[in-house]
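FAQ
Q: What does a multi-component entry look like?
A: The components come first, one per line:
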Amino acid sequence: MDKKVSLSFSGTAILQAVAHNYHYGFDIMDVTGLPSGTVYPALRRLEKAKLIESKWEDEAAAHREQRPARRYYKLTATGRAALQEAIGRYRRLEGTLVKKTRASTA
Amino acid sequence: MKSEAPSPRISLGIIRALSLLVPIRTRRDWRREWEAEVINRWLQREKWKQSNLRMQSDLLMRTGGALCDVLWFQEKRAELMLVMLNMLVGGMTGFGALQELLAGGLFAGGLRDGKAGTFLLSLAAVFISLLFIVSGVAVLRHWRTVRSLIMTTGLLSILLHVYGALTPHRTMGYVALMVGAGYGLLMLLTFEWQRRRDLFV
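Then the predicted structure of the entire assembly, as tokens:
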């Protein structure tokens, strides 16, 4: 049976980036602002937890563009569900914080 | 003097060196992924409007993170190290305690000669050495009870070795204290760190 995993902030940010079509390690770093020392180990953990999967680009297509083929990451169905759950968690937190701030300033 | 065309040679060299630390079955893909990213970024430097020097430093910063990536792959090795150290410390603790019990004559006349404390301490040490070995097997075989076993073993080992090294009975030396209590603590921290790392992705 798969172990229930909780998404950390960096895990959520990376999944969110992958969901928005940033499929490569360096591109994920650029868009999330996270360093490579955080992004790559997180990608390994997310893949191990089956929240993302990785594949290699078509060699021929990359060759035509005169560059090496890159490994890209895709969200799995489990990853999409985990991302939705994490986003919901952050939204609830934001709602709570807004409510508390309003109450303290009123 | 002939100047060489700029290239991400340093970054690629670092990646090649670090790849030696990656387990063999994933090494080729690991190196291929990192090299492809570095080369792609280098080829895009015009698009990114970055000078060669700036791009070199940016790539070096990124390549530095490959070390953290390599460390992630050491998980299995860390697990094996934990198992081996558990066996070693368990064996050493058990050997010392059995020596006290059998060769030191505690087993024969320990309770009669007023050495009940030392006798019980040695028995506890034998028990804890067995716990070390069992928890090592539990880590290796991924038993469900592994966490409670590790916690119990670590805490009992710390307690036993600190208590044993204290006066007035003081049946253990400082080396035993350092090894038994130190490793007990290290084992607890390593295991918990690994467990938390697996819980949060």
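Q: Is there any commentary attached?
A: Sometimes. For this entry: Chain B has a mean pLDDT of 85.
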